[in-house]
Design brief:
The chain has 850 residues and is an all-beta fold. The chain contains two helices and 62 strands. The longest helix is centred in the middle third of the chain and has 12 residues, at 311-322.
Length: 850
């Protein structure tokens, strides 16, 4: 008794504590671990860097490579100055907020052009492949033109510019010649000296086995937004040429201070120069020009030479190889030439990039933006910035493909800054999170945070944890015994690793196995076959979920009871749909065949075990579909975030969101509720009049239109399913997770509202944490580890762009993985009123016979 303290806390009062696991020099992710090269453009105030993945960002660095500020996501105080920004009034509280669009619902770029309901295949249309900056204006070019300003506004112009994507037809081996199915976007852009005209080139594409380029330059009125018109060359496929004004791969475009237009005629080994009216002026010989930078002071021309994704370079190599000539080798170099009047070569420097040896296969998977360079003429001497995509030399070593800053010294280019190395030093793990998934787990015994990012199997399992000390921000990597799909800590600090059909318990951090009393020995517990022999694993009626390889969650409550979502639709010995390439994943868990009720769709179950591994509740919520998180409170009530949106009166709660991909949080007493589906795929479909006599409650996967019977409560508008019905079911690789604390409070991400909802155990909204903001928004209690000049936003100071994953340390801290700002926020869970009583000061009533 004398060691205990009773604490009474009233009125939740969250406060942004500090930024964790953030480095402005760390790369963004793009899908399955790959990434296009960041695009850099220099200006008098510094160098702007655009990078795309599931999210986009534009960051300003000074001339020495130090972080200054974020331009996009837009600063919170500039939202009212972004013309054409899509907004939506959310019915939950009537608040009007920016509306993120795209399949991932992750972008505000391109305004009205980012229409709702896009497919996965069109998602890249909301990424830019080129950028130009001049006089405070920013031109982003992708499927459409995006118009921004360097102050974080749109500079008075409508954010949405014209469409510049060009349809192409794939030709050659395995070609799909369907017209208007494939497109290419410009990979180079330049603004005229007055900032009114935008030139576009580098219309290159790289589909599997098909890489080629158009041979023209287009131009459009940047202010008025008219459709692009041909400036030089041809925009028809196959119309290449060697004469003046024709190109074999118009790889890049640039303008000098007098408005002359320079075009990198890649496979003709020259730069062609035109006046603003399109008249040919001069050809400058340069080997394989890929990018051009022109000094605004001296007119000197810097030319980056490397391979670009086009068929002609590869074809030339193949022809030379067949003729028994030496293979074509392109060594990346930077040439310094004199100005237009006398463009003789002044210097040539090798660049620290992989050589192109001409092999076909080593290039076929690259994105169009494979290598980018620019020269910062506002530093003395000029600084060369180069970046590259994941290429044939990439082995997952992200610290080796960061942006490089080079300066000339004694006739050579020396590395001034290496962003990849700096990111690894700052946050240890330089690799960006694959699929932008950052599962968060707090150890209740130590308070330390553990971040799980996919690195194994099909990028849904993890064998390495990022350990973060919240009080200091210190980071270290923790190697696990094997790759797990999920994990959980109990109140004593034991860690539970969950794979397809097993949960293995360990002491932490020693990784000494703590066997279950009711367990089984296993030779392997890992999806990739890499675990040690297991003494006693808890074996579940489960297997890896069909087709998308991740399960619905596992949770340990304060009593040590374990709840797990268990996909269970495959019979023992039969192949699991979508098993990995190594072979079959057999359904060798504990056999369990659930009872059927009319309208029950077979997908999985929820099962609960005690701390010894003895089953407490089987099939606790019959008919439940796919989940993105599960919780179990001290009274054994179950909380789930189900994959699908809430219906009110049988209709979407917010009919103004046609692309609603939110989820629904539900609470059940084990065995007291069930899901009834109208789906015809149910083993026992609903008969004519057997459906509940009320409107349906839920539209989810795989249950479809459903009724939720016996739930304590439902709360919609949270999470993100990735399950888009307009795209044939969509992709659940990008998703979200809620969390539960020991007091039965749910913390659910509201990814489209830039907030996290805190609910009490009765499903009532306590408050919302967070508001729209970029990484510079929100003044923390401790600024260490974050941006140098945070802006106050008021209230709890929590600013979020896309907080999809959350984790709670009892009622002390909430952690939010904000993928849109590529950081983790530590939010202190304080209270408006709090009192503590040490029990050593309280009379022991057991003394004296009382």
């Amino acid at each position: 008794k004398d060691r205990l303290v009773v604490r009474v806390s009233l009125g939740l009062k969250p406060r942004f504590e500090r930024t964790l696991f953030w480095s402005p020099h760390k790369r963004l992710s793009n899908g399955w671990g790959g990434a296009s090269a960041p695009v850099m453009r220099a200006a008098p105030e510094g160098v702007y860097v655009y990078e795309a993945g599931a999210f986009d960002r534009i960051t300003l660095f000074d001339h020495e490579g130090n972080y200054v500020r974020t331009v996009y996501p837009f600063p919170s105080d500039k939202l009212d100055h972004v013309v054409g920004l899509k907004k939506h009034t959310f019915l939950q509280d009537g608040q009007t907020l920016p509306l993120k669009a795209g399949f991932w619902q992750s972008t505000l770029l391109f305004g009205k052009n980012a229409s709702p309901g896009p497919s996965r295949r069109s998602e890249t249309g909301f990424e830019a492949t080129a950028m130009a900056i001049l006089g405070g204006r920013i031109a982003l070019a992708g499927k459409y033109i995006g118009r921004l300003a360097t102050d974080g506004s749109s500079g008075g112009l409508d954010l949405a510019g014209p469409r510049v994507q060009v349809p192409i037809i794939l030709q050659g081996v395995n070609a799909d010649s369907t017209a208007n199915k494939y497109f290419t976007t410009p990979c180079s852009a330049a603004l005229s000296p007055d900032g009114k005209l935008l030139y576009l080139a580098g219309y290159m594409w790289r589909y599997p086995w098909h890489n080629d380029t158009l041979h023209g330059v287009t131009r459009l009125d940047f202010e008025r937004g008219g459709e692009p018109a041909l400036f030089a060359g041809s925009m028809k496929q196959g119309e290449a040429g060697t004469e003046e004004g024709r190109f074999r791969g118009a790889a890049a475009v640039a303008c000098d201070a007098k408005g002359r237009v320079y075009v990198a005629d890649h496979c003709n080994d020259r730069i062609q120069v035109f006046d603003p009216d399109g008249r040919f002026l001069k050809a400058i010989p340069v080997f394989r020009p890929a990018s051009i930078s022109i000094s605004p002071k001296t007119g000197e021309i810097y030319v980056f030479s490397w391979v670009t994704p086009n068929r002609f370079t590869l074809k030339l190599h193949e022809e030379r190889t067949k003729a028994h000539q030496p293979p074509l080798v392109i060594e990346p170099r930077l040439f310094k030439l004199g100005p237009f009047e006398d463009p003789k070569q002044l210097a040539a420097w090798p660049l620290p990039l992989p050589k192109f040896g001409g092999a076909y296969m080593e290039w076929w998977t690259l994105p169009p933006v494979s290598t980018v360079g620019d020269v910062d003429f506002w530093s003395d001497p000029p600084t060369i910035w180069i970046s590259r995509a994941t290429d044939q030399d990439f082995r997952g070593e992200w610290q080796n493909i960061g942006i490089l800053l080079l300066r000339e010294k004694d006739g050579k280019l020396e590395v001034l800054r290496d962003f990849g190395k700096e990111a690894a030093k700052a946050v240890v793990r330089a690799a960006p999170p694959t699929l932008d998934r950052q599962r968060l787990y707090a150890n209740p015994r130590t308070g330390k945070l553990y971040v799980a990012e996919g690195d194994s199997g099909v990028c849904k399992s993890f064998r390495e944890l990022v350990e973060i000390e919240p009080c200091t921000g210190a980071v270290r990597l923790v190697q696990m015994p094997y790759a797990a799909e999920d994990m959980a800590f109990d109140a004593d600090g034991l860690v539970y690793l969950r794979s397809d059909n097993t949960v293995v318990r360990y002491e932490f951090p020693s990784w000494r196995e703590v066997p279950w009393d009711y367990g089984e020995a296993r030779d392997n517990a890992a999806f990739d076959g890499g675990s040690p022999k297991i003494v006693s694993a808890l074996v579940m009626p489960s297997h890896r979920s069909p087709s998308f390889w991740h399960m619905g969650g596992v949770y340990i409550n304060a009593k040590g009871y374990l709840a797990a979502a268990c996909p269970n639709v495959v019979e023992k010995g039969k192949r699991v749909p979508g098993a990995d390439a190594k072979g079959n994943v057999s359904a060798d868990g504990v056999p369990y065949t659930p009872p059927l009720h009319p309208g029950r769709v077979r997908w999985g179950e929820i099962h609960v075990w005690d701390r010894h591994g003895k089953i407490l509740f089987s099939d606790a919520v019959p008919g439940i579909g796919h989940l993105n998180g599960i919780g179990l409170d001290a009274q054994n009530n179950l909380y789930v975030m189900a994959n699908g949106h809430r219906l009110i009166g049988g209709k979407k709660y917010d009919p103004g969101l046609p692309d609603d991909l939110s989820e629904t949080l539900m609470k059940f007493r084990p065995g007291a509720g069930k899901i009834v589906s109208a789906s015809k795929s149910a083993p026992v479909p609903l008969a004519g009049d057997s459906a509940p006599k009320r409107p349906p409650d839920f539209e989810g996967f795989p249950t479809g239109t459903s009724w939720v019977e016996g739930a304590e409560w439902l709360y919609g508008g949270v999470g993100y399913t990735g399950n888009a019905p307009w795209d044939g079911g969509g992709c659940r690789c990008w998703n979200a997770r809620f969390c539960l604390d020991y007091f039965g409070r749910s913390f659910a991400p509201e990814t489209r509202r830039f907030s996290v909802a805190a609910l009490d155990s009765s499903g009532n909204l306590i408050l919302r944490m967070g508001r729209y903001g970029n990484v510079d928004d929100g003044r923390p209690l401790d600024p260490k580890g974050g941006p140098p000049n945070p802006r106050p936003v008021g209230g709890d100071e929590v600013a979020i762009f896309h907080g999809a994953y959350v984790g709670a340390h009892t009622d002390r801290r909430l952690f939010v993985a904000d993928g849109g700002n590529r950081r983790i926020l530590s939010v202190k869970l304080g209270y408006h009123a709090e009192e503590k009583v040490a029990l050593k000061d309280v009379e022991d009533r057991g003394k004296g016979g009382r």
